[in-house]
Amino acid sequence: MIDPWSSAVLDYEKLIEQFGIKPFSELLPEVDNPPILMKRGIIFGQRDYGRILKAMHEKSEFAVVSGMMPSGKMHIGHKMIVDQLIWYQDHGADIFIPIADMESYSARNIDFEDSKELAILEYLTNYIALGLDFKKKNIHCYLQSENRTVQNLAYLTGKKVNLNEMRSIYGFSGSTNISHLYVPLIQVADILHPQLEEFGGPKPTVVPVGPDQDPHIRLTRDIAERFKNKFNFIAPSSTYHRFITGLTGDKMSSSKPKTAIFLSDSPEIAEKKVKTAKTGGRESLEDQKKLGGMPEVCVVYEMLLYHLVKSDQKLEKIFNNCKNGTMMCGECKIQASTMMKNFFEKLSKKRTDAEGEARKILSEY
Ligand code: SF4
Q: Which one of 38, 119, 128, 245 is CB 3.0 to 4.6 Å from 34, fit for a cystine?
């Protein structure tokens, strides 16, 4: 069972085997100009992504749905979602961003007003600062608690699923509160509502998620099928990305500040945090020169791979220099922390400008 509300580290290979997620690498040759998250295997799995590629090739309508649950600060790992949204925006997708304040209330006990404020100050401000363009007409951002279309559709979907099914998918027990039981249906409606007539009717839709969110995808795909006659929904496609490792070597998590570089950190703090990250270095310099480092298990290397080094050649050089023992962790960390500092200097300037626009989004778009 996968629990979307826990933060367990998952075995990606097992997920592919057990839940019928297909390797993304099978489709990679068909993606024109893939972003680094696809090229470098960070997006590792997919369901029915072929229909999204077809829509992109034919320049026909398709949608992307990616929700945010305002429950804490955004960290560098969350940037992956924004990077994907920007890429899809550039490829003509209709973008839907539900703000999951109903989920925040049920699963994290956060009031709607607090969720809204957190969504504006933390999430939307960062989304804009990272480059997502909310001024384009094909972008829809809303609070679940204020979207009657989504709420009505969620109510209808409830008719197509029973309690036993919800228990077997999510592990709900007799003590689960009823609001929490209802949350997955709101998410199903978030994902399916872009296919309603008022948004242009049935269309391929992709949901880029971490693998912990797969239960929602499976439920939505089943419900889409059960509503085939009424709405003619196309089962949503999905992609799955790896989680970024935290500074300590565990999963990066907003609720564990020691593991995370937050997007609201100052450039100096971000720089310092990189220097504290767990590496794949050996016990001694002598061993590292002789045996080489282990970039495969190095948090610093992961930051370079996911975010900091755009050039594949440059990244390959760092990998090789690490493996053959010609580069030591001290030098490597200085380079990586400088890159992180530079990135955060630009980001924090943009964040200051973005806050005003973020505040307007929920009332204007
Ligand atoms: Fe990681 Fe760099 Fe050390 Fe290699 S040299 S283990 S990439 S910090």
A: 38
